[in-house]
TrEMBL record:
Biased composition (Low complexity): 1-21
Signal sequence residues: none
GO MF annotation: an example: alpha,alpha-trehalase activity
Pfam annotation, one family: Trehalase
Organism: Macleaya cordata
Keyword Hydrolase: yes
Listed name of the protein: Trehalase
Record-level GO BP terms: trehalose catabolic process
Record key words, sorted: Glycosidase, Hydrolase
EC number: 3.2.1.28
The reaction(s) this protein catalyses: alpha,alpha-trehalose + H2O = alpha-D-glucose + beta-D-glucose
UniProt region (Disordered), positions on chain: 1-24
Family, as annotated: Belongs to the glycosyl hydrolase 37 family.
Amino acid sequence: MTVTESYSPSSSSSSSCSTDSGPVKSSTPLISFLERIQETALNTFGATDFDPKLYIDLSLKFSLLKTEEAFDKLLRLNNGSVSVPDLNSFIEKFLNEAGSDIVYHEPVDFVQEPIGFLPKVANFEVREWALEVHSLWKNLSRRVADGVIENPELHTILPLKFPMIIPGSRFREVYYWDSYWELGTGEGSTYTAIVGPTWRGLLASKMYETAKAIVYNLISLVDEYGYVLNGARAYYSNRSQPPLLSAMVFEIYNRTGDLSLVKTALPALLKEHNFWNSGIHKVTIQDSEGCSHNLSRYYAMWNIPRPESSTIDKESASKLLNVSEKQHFYRELASTAESGWDFSTRWMRNQSDLTSLATTSIIPVDLNAYILKMELDIAFLARAIGDGSTAEHFLEASQARRKAISSIFWNGKKGQWLDYWLTNTCEEVHKWEAQGQNQNIFASNFIPIWIELFYSDDSTVEKLMGSLQSSGLLCAAGIATSLSRSGEQWDFPNGWAPIQHMIVEGLARSDLKEARSMAEDIAVRWIKTNYATYKKTGTMHEKYDVEACGKFGRGGEYVPQTGFGWSNGVVLAFLEEFGWPQDRDMDC
Ligand SMILES: OC[C@H]1O[C@H](O[C@H]2O[C@H](CO)[C@@H](O)[C@H](O)[C@H]2O)[C@H](O)[C@@H](O)[C@@H]1O
């Protein structure tokens, strides 16, 4: 297989700005205390099966002061450990279990078999399975426990007002970009003619109230913080995640025509747009013809270990010698988490060295495609509520970003958009150089095809299809995220695949018949792999099956992840769009 090469845009990989100087959000005393418990638990229980997030998700039974006093009284050995019985009894007496601050919530709009559910799925076996997947929304539905609203200072979970869908497993809170695939997107409104066929996840399940609740929660985060947090925990407040809120509002509006949602959402979307297009997130770059473009990058407001992974981050940083190198690395770790791709060689100067992460020095293709979508959505939604001047302003912004995406990222020879690496992060205005484009292949290089401005251009679609076909990314479970076998979560063969939804969606909307059939082929692979895994393990909940659909593509090397709300969403969305004929079997 093709091996992704280590990437360094120029010989001067350490720019004069390699020391850390960005903004830092303050942590809370509760988080700092839970990190101490985390550290002690590692020393006491040992590293086997140790999940640091478990400890930062605990909540207090009593005040922080009282809990801290009791913790300080525990008898310690030299290495900072406590006896196992002492630590266990402290935890039992003073802390509530991780996950107890969210409780099951019966979704108000769930019915066993919604009217009009997946009308194009004719095959009985597939319908039955799709109904089981649909019923999984119930397993992932939660609301914040009453105790959190009463005493938020005892919890790291944020007191969201509305019910929520969580990814599942160790992720016991709302995640920003996961929410997009859970929500899926909608079809069948009066606007379908304008936007073309679109998608459904929760919307395929006709759970509009649940979908809206997700969006209202995210809006409340923008109201409070100015952006949507990575996830709804206090320790995620130092960064966001790929910005897909506008896409959610757009899809719900298309489906329900709910103007009051649009009116509430618009001010939040404007705030969010400003967050991504000012300060540290904004990068100005001059193209080869001397035109200046504004684009955006990931950049967390944090330069210490991520609290949910603190013990791991410290270990990863241990080979760095001085404080400023460590701070720089910690910021890169958090900024990579902001990208949603934590972690991947996509962000590393040296494939085998995590400390070479350089996310803040990269202008990412996918982020800018999402922001272009945001601009188009804002223009559309503003027009829907009669705000012509905002609509006009954002239409202009979208035209500028479209030009920027073409000038800075597009590589005609490769037929892909390529991430751009900055050579000197200190410059106010960066000068574009051909060698700044990262030539390595990632699924993100294909994401702009999601946007109508690109999928409506036949010659771009044709080039991109050829490029995708020969990329090596097409696997048994659809599109892999990367070709590198680094062992990182977002690299081959572990790369999670929900983003393939956007590529498939763009191809399916193109006027080219071949593009739609390529999209369907990818969707069929994804569905079959999920089905095979489900049949084998009896669940969609974070199960990996190396052998499922092994005879496709890479012959069993690809490890699909069929857990999580977002897998449910993408399966339902694909079934909604392409259907499943009676005579197509489900065998891999
Ligand atoms: O626990 C460490 C990291 O976990 C999250 O990242 C991963 O799970 C998320 C939830 O499914 C997903 O949105 C993300 O793309 C995954 O990489 C979290 O988002 C990170 O910030 C966190 O450090």
